[in-house]
Amino acid sequence: MSEDFLPIKAIDHVEIYAGNAKQAAHFYRTGFGFAQAAYSGLETGNRQTASYVMAQGKIRLVLTSALGPDHPIARHAYLHGDGVAVIALGVPDAESAYRETTARGASGAIAPTEITDECGVLRYSAVRAYGDTIIKFVDRSNYHGAFAPGYTARNGYGPEADNGRVWHKGVGLAAIDHMVGNVELGAMNRWVEFFARTMGFSQLVHFDDQDISTEYSALMSKVMQDGTGKVKFPINEPAEGKKKSQIQEYLDYYYGPGVQHIACSTGDIIGTVMQLRDSGIEFLRVPTTYYQELESRVGKINEPVDVLAELGVLVDRDDEGYLLQIFTKPVEDRPTVFFEIIERHGSRGFGKGNFKALFESIEREQALRGNL
After folding, report:
1. Which residues fall in the annotated binding site for Fe cation?
2. Are 141 and 179 members of one domain?
3. Within this chain, do residues 240 and 135 fall inside the same structural domain, yes or no?
């Protein structure tokens, strides 16, 4: 077995560029149960941007806004709306990660950089991925601050909060399970090849338009994962259908390729979804007929089917076990970024058996928006 030229510890954080990060932070705190772990802005000496680090389980969302109209982050938010701009991966050596990926054809976005404060040295670099998304490599081995130099801890999160432990239980979101990217028609295989060649990822599974289609629309999807299986990046492209697919709707409103959704794992999807629903988070719904004969389709499960039906949670099974999943509606006005909540019981799949019911639900939402 060849040596892994890009060892990845975990997803370090995901950065969302927002029109108003302060208001977005309030939404993710009250709606999704995140706690504010760190802050950077005018009060910390940052004259260009404001950032709020929101933590729950092992998940960190960084919400960033520009403080002026000419900043690149302002232009990103103007073009795309609120969206994922940075996927940050924890690595043991950010310089090596940059050197290895760019040597294999990745386009550099941030050359190896180190910044220091009284809490140590933070090293990072970045390469370009689909659309305006960048993949950042972060080495925290010699940094023990709240998040990064220029940030101050909030809500009692001190220097010890960044050593990989769980920061805040919130509504039970534990970790990022996978992140899905949407790319334009014909581009999926190019990005599959990019992750394989430049980052050493392998293809876990492939879905074609026979797997993922309805009467009106279809899509193609391939799932890429790192050597440990901890980091999974499904990539979607639209397929020809009678009407506009959900992927094409995303591309039209995001004005290009980007991250479609972030899937967050939980150990108690019923408790998590109940809390999210009570906080005002809206979910896609499938017809109640989906739950008729559910256990005859997927076998015995631990959760009461009537409760799953009330909440709208979907179930799928493969050779290794089963999973439960549910999808929010888009979390901004544009029909772009949304979240998935997933609980795995052995299954490493992505809910193939739910695709048809789910996409028909999405099409009903598209029709309401006049975009089908």
Report:
1. 178, 261, 340
2. no
3. no
